[in-house]
Amino acid sequence: METRHLCIRVFGRVQGVAFRHYTRQKALSLGLTGFVKNLADGSVYIEASGGREAIALFTDWCRQGPPAARVQHLRSEEIRSPGLDHFSIR
Description:
By secondary structure, the protein is of the alpha+beta class. The chain has helices at residues 19-29, 52-64; strands spanning 3-13, 33-38, 44-51, 70-78, 87-89.
């Protein structure tokens, strides 16, 4: 299985809507490792690692986010493996 490692920035109304909580749940359901955290500019930063299909499903989910979120846009890029063994909220 080919593993992909992405960093994702999500912009819009993504803080104060449980985005990090739902992101962690989705990542765990897909068997991904990594982390999610809020940034001072109001965006959410995610690093995620996993199989190609799981990463694709996760990225698609991030474009929508949880029900109360309003995602305006998303940026993602391949990164080196963060070497994490779980998915956490920071």
